Structure formats: structure tokens, C-alpha cells
């Protein structure tokens, strides 16, 4: 497990350094040409996609670590969360209650790690709005087996410079043939 975190950290540093180098290179280009503007917009879109990807990572890390504070830092104040059909929470207070009392993410007897393979993630970014879809494998640390698979279809918004979840609908993905 430490190796996965180390690789994730290295990946994040490399991607961050590459984005930083690209920002410096683009900002040193002369003029206000439309080509330069399009390049800057694409660079911003790529940075937004990276930040949206971090929301997915923090979501699963917070559950794996039983960290409700980290989990709740991902939600907009008036967000909605539909955990199952007919079970929708509105606002951080109700969402927090769900994670603590229903999903019991802080239960120390649960020793799961949540993992989302890269090919099961889709992200979009358009200005200050974005989407995130992921399928997540819940792996029991004792048996090293997948004990559950969940999915989330999430809408995000950049609020005060941070990407936050505004609406999320959970589901159980079905295998297709």
C-alpha cells in the first residue's frame, strides 16, 4: 500500500512540475495572440482536469483512512448526494450524517482500501463546471479480495478557486458483456 501512495505522490509531483513548466513557457511567449489564448485555455482545462482527479483521489483516501474531515472538505455547502434510489441528502450536515451513521466510514473495524483503476475514471471540465465518473473497488486488506464495487456520477464546481462536489449520485456498476 505504501508503494501505491509513493507512486501517486511521484506522479502528482511530476504532473505538477510539468504543468508549472508549461505555464512558465506559455507566459513567456509574446503578445496576446488568439493562438496563445487558446493554448492558455487548454492549459487551464488540463489543470482543472488534474484538480478534479484529485477530488476523486481524496474521496477514496478519506474513506480508506476513515477521515470524515477530509471527506467533507470535498463538498460544496448546498451539495446533494444520492447514495441509493430514494436516499438523497442535501447540505453538508445531512451528507456528513450519512457518512458517519449510515455508511459508517469512521468504523475502525472496517479495513478496506478503495481503489479506482485509471480506465474506470472519466472527467470533464468546462470553465468553472466539471463532471467526474468513477468505479471503485473496495478491497479487504485481510483477504486482499474485492468485497464491493461502487460507482459515482458527480458534478463539480470551482468555488473560490477549489473544485467542490455539488451533486453526486452513487450506484453499483453492472458488468456488461
Please give a structural write-up.
The protein contains four helices and seven strands, in the order H-H-H-E-E-H-E-E-E-E-E. The chain has helices at 2-27, 34-64, 68-72, 91-102, and strands at residues 75-84, 87-90, 112-115, 121-126, 129-140, 145-159, 162-171. The protein is globular and about 60 Å long. The two termini are 31 Å apart.
Q: Could you give the topology of this structure?
A:
Layout: H1 2-27, H2 34-64, H3 68-72, E1 75-84, E2 87-90, H4 91-102, E3 112-115, E4 121-126, E5 129-140, E6 145-159, E7 162-171
Parallel strand pairs: 1-7
Antiparallel strand pairs: 1-2, 3-5, 4-5, 5-6, 6-7
Helix pairs in contact: 1-2
Helix content: 40-55%
Number of helices: 4
Cα gyration radius (Å): 18 Å
In total, the number of strands is: 7
Look up the CATH topology: Nuclear Transport Factor 2, Chain: A
Primary descriptors:
177 residues, alpha+beta, seven-stranded mixed sheet, 7 strands, disordered N terminus
Short description:
With 177 residues, this protein is an alpha+beta fold. It has helices spanning 2-27, 34-64, 68-72, 91-102, and strands spanning 75-84, 87-90, 112-115, 121-126, 129-140, 145-159, 162-171. α1 (2-27) runs antiparallel to α2.
